[in-house]
Prior knowledge:
Blueprint: E1 3-7, E2 14-18, E3 23-25, E4 32-34, H1 35-45, H2 68-83, H3 87-100, H4 105-116, H5 126-142, H6 145-238, H7 244-309
Antiparallel strand pairs: 1-2, 3-4
Helix pairs in contact: 2-3, 2-4, 3-4, 4-5, 6-7
Amino acid sequence: MSLQKAECTSCGSTLIVDNKLKAAICEYCGSAYIVEEAINKYYYNYNYNYNFTNNITADNVIVTGKGDAEKERLLKNAKTNEGLGEYGKAKQIYTLITDDYPGDYRGWLGLALLISKNNTKTDITKYEYDKVCDYMKKVFICVPSDKKDEIRRQWDDYKNKRSDNINRIKKELDDLINKEKHLTDLINIHMSKSEEYYKRLNGINKKGNDIKKTYGVFFGLIYLLFLSVIIFGIVKLFSGDWRFIVYGLIAIFGLFIIGSIYEKVSSGFINKKYVKYSSLRESESNKIDDLKQEKSILQDKIKTINNKYF
């Protein structure tokens, strides 16, 4: 894209257009115009020397002279757009001024003040601040001596304000970093607790297995004893002796009692402890997940601030 000054063929407003376009719309009156005609009209009206060919296009307009009146008009146009909040258009015009009149400090100063919003925006990014510093170096190379002290005073005042703001941002960043460290410590504490509960759960499982092994033999023998009584009772029943039927029924009831006691002894209180520590470990895991999420958000903020200002 190559930007070129032009004049609307309808309303006469000064425009900045891409000379590779064939046609465009005036941003002031909304009328359509032929780009090459608008460019030719602009240079013709401001008495610039230019070459015509039989098939003139925007690309072959050759400007050989530029006057102070045009420079002042561009500066006024840039200020107008800036006042209207059309910062993109103002930047284009200031850029044209620095291209056409690089020795005039006002083009460079205009670009610098656009970024700093007339020295009021102190939270600009590092990239933006570096651009402002670069523009201001060129300002002090070009500025007349009678204006240098005032511009220097304003520039130093802005730098001090931005420095104060950066120091405030650094303090906020330090607070965020300390908070991140605190979250890391909390995560480690809860992870230690979770690991402790995990070990206890393993211990409970091992203890449950040991109890089943220890009491399994004892209750197994009793179980076999009652089972033998039942079988003996059934045998006697078929032989016509009804006396042992009572012992058989008692033995059956005893089997249920023995099974219940064994279940209670071997796993009842074990299960209760297991549920307790499982719940505690799950609670710790949830806390760890919440803290990690909070830490991740905090890390993103820290990264954003670092990339933006430092």
